[in-house]
Every structure is written in C-alpha cells, then in structure tokens.
C-alpha cells in the first residue's frame, strides 16, 4: 500500500475513532494525527507534523522506553509481515497510556509508516495496581460482616435459648397451676380471731416480706399449708405461683425426679425431659409439705439447694441455679428425728431459721363458731342444700371435743352433718364423746408456749439478747421489746 493511499484511508476513519491515533514516517516524525491525539497531548497540528514523536511541541517527550520501542520496530532489515508491539508508559501527569504500534509496508516490503494507537488505561492500571489493597480491604469488610453476623446469630441463639427456657418453665407452671386449680384452697380465709391465731398471723406478716426460709410446725390438719400460702401471698413473689410438693405423698424413688427434674432417658420410662419443682419455682416460692418424710439420701441434695441454690437434674451433669424461697412444713418433731438419726442436723438448722407453730384446734375453741359458719355455707352450696340454723347445742358439742384431727376432722364432721340434715337446721351425724375438759389438764397456755420458745432461742444464741446473730434478731424483735417480754415472763439467764 502506498503512503498516499494509507493516508486517504486514515483521513476517512479519523472521525469515528475516539482513541488518539498518529502516523509516523520511517524517521519517527509525525505525518498525521487525529483530533483525539491533539486533545489528549495538548498540541496543535502545526506543533506536530514533521516533528519527532518524542519531541512534540515544548513537552520534549523524551521517553527512552518509547524511543527504544519505536526504533526497535523499524530495524534496518525489517521482517516482511505486519506485527504489533504493546508497551505501557506513564505520561507527564497522572495518566498511564497503552501503546499499540503497527508497521505500514510499502513497495518492495519496506516499512514506510508506523501507525500508533494510544489508549488511556489509567483507571484500569490503577485498579490493577490497587487490586490487592481492594481485595484485602474487601476481605476485611467481609470478615467483619461475618463476625457481626455470627455475633447476631449467637445473640439470637442466646435469646432463643432463654425464650425456650422461660417457655418450658411457664408451661410447667401452667400445668402445675391447672392441677392446683382443680383443688380448692382458701389461703386468704384463715378463719378465726383467737389470740393463738392472731399470734400466728403476726409472725406471718413479720416474715413474709423477706426471703428467709420458714418452717411451719403443727399437728396434722391444723392448716399449715394455709400459713404457707399466706406467707407467699404477702411476699414480693406473690405474682408467681406457690409451688407445692408433698414429700409424704410421693414414692421415695420419684421424689428426687419431682424435686430436681430429669433428662430424657435418665431412668426406665423417662421418655422426655422433665422440669423439677425447683425449676418451676424459680423466682417464686416452693412449699415442701411433710418435710420430715423426705428420705435421708435426698436431704443432702436439698441442703445444697437451700445453701447455694444449685442442683443437677437426674441424668445430667450440668449445674442449674435457681432462686426459690423455701417454706417447709411438718407434723413431726424434727429435733427428735435428728436425735434418732432419721433427719440431718445440718438440714434441720437450715430449715429452723424462723419457725411458726400452727396451734391445734383445741387451743383455739373460740374460733369454732366462725369455722362452722364458713364450712357449713361452703359444704351446703356444694351439696345443693340450704342450712340456715346451727343450734347452740351443736356449737357447744363441737367446742367440747378434743379434735385430734383438728380442722380437717371438723370439716368432715360438718359435711356428714349437712348430709344428715333434712331441713334448714344442722344436725350432727357424729356423737362427739371426748370432752375437751379432760384433755386440758396438762395443756400449756399461749404465754407458756411463748416463754418456752423465747428461752429456747436464747439458749441457742448463748443468751445474746441484741446485736448480730442474737435472740432478738432471730425472733424479729427489737432488743428493748425482747427485754420487756423477758421481764414480763420472768425469764432470767441461769
């Protein structure tokens, strides 16, 4: 191709090419260039034509690598075929240009012209040079995002675990309450105004606001559970259920599972995990009725829960912490049980922090009329009868009876009486033959009971009246009040 023919073609394509193009002669002087070339390199046609490519205008494009490259593609004995050479070089300024050089051969296969195509690859090279930094930064961002996602996942899993735990506890409590609702309790109806009962209620109000362990003592049927429910009802935990365990009603092999729960497969027949009453009572009150019936081998585990609030479910080694207030009750003489080796002395000391004794019915006969009125109305409503009259003779008979079964026996006697009554007047079906007078000869008065209890407390505290671990602190009295009671009851240190 002749030089003239090539330049004609070059002129025709100048307007359609955006990249800078320049045609050089065999001496590497500029023959022709397009508009993009002039704009990119900030030169005019007058400053370029006939000028060496690396001496353009005032810029002195004296770039050794460019010069060597261009001189290399025009050797004295050039090869006969077209070829391309690529080279990237930096211009004056921040841009990086990519060079594509092609020889244009004329007659007799001599290189007449060189066509240079120049491309701005600054962004590409910048990205290429900074790719590692970009990748590292992006990797760090991904790692941080992954850590945040993992943290959110762990937080969500922790929250879900807590929700599942609370749900399980609520389900267990709901199931327990469903059973309790089936029974009929009147913890808000401790009936009576006798001095003996008033003293019990005073002790209940005195201790209810704390989390101190309470031991309720008294004969069977005196209403020890009502006292426990009253303590719970006045406490800070009253919004939660009072959870009850009757240690005498469960077989020995099931008491541990009932108290502390078990894992699936912990023993034959345990097909699923079971929450014990301590877990159900977490944040609430646990009433251990008939604590004197608790097997000796379980007493140490109960002692640990009372002391540290920790236990393990059957079949699990994971320690569970709970915050349950303990109210225990028994009709046994635990001091005698300790002496006989049937009850741990350390557990007895832990339980006997604040004892409350529920008086037997024979010591509160003035409450019998109120109790009769309450139970007759309750029983009559349940049986669909209408008893409006309770004869004075019936009341006298009831007051003159010893009541070995206490209030539970009284309720049974009254139910049989309501069933036996055909009209509005109550007629007893039982003949109460044991007069109370014959059994009162050796009975202690309330004042004697109070004196004995204060003396026992003083003996246990080495007769320390006031201060830390003193009798006044144990009894919940001011030191001056205790001294006044000691003077009135003629209590003196031996």
Describe the protein in words.
With 494 residues, this protein is an alpha/beta fold. The model is unreliable at 76-85, 181-187 and 435-439 (pLDDT under 50). Strand 9 and strand 10 form a beta hairpin. The protein has 5 domains: 3-122, PAS domain (Beta-Lactamase), CATH 3.30.450; 130-179; 188-359, Rossmann fold (3-Layer(aba) Sandwich), CATH 3.40.50; 363-439, Helicase, Ruva Protein, domain 3; 446-488. It has helices at 3-13, 35-41, 45-48, 64-72, 122-129, 131-182, 195-208, 224-234, 252-260, 277-280, 296-308, 334-339, 345-351, 368-383, 392-399, 406-420, 446-460, 471-475, 479-488, and strands at residues 21-25, 30-33, 84-90, 96-105, 111-120, 214-217, 242-246, 285-289, 310-312, 319-321, 325-330, 354-357. The longest helix is centred in the first third of the chain and has 52 residues, at 131-182.
Brief summary of the model shown:
The protein has 494 residues and is an alpha/beta fold. 45% of the residues lie in helices and 13% in strands.
Helix content: 40-55%
Distance between the termini: 139 Å
Number of strands: 12
Output the CATH homologous superfamily of the largest domain. Answer: P-loop containing nucleotide triphosphate hydrolases
The helix count comes to 19
The main sheet orders its strands as 2-1-5-4-3
When the domains are counted, the total is: 5
Structural shape: rod-shaped
- Kindly state the mean pLDDT as a whole number? 81
Low-confidence parts, pLDDT < 50 over ≥5 residues?
76-85, 181-187, 435-439
Gross CATH architecture of the largest domain: 3-Layer(aba) Sandwich
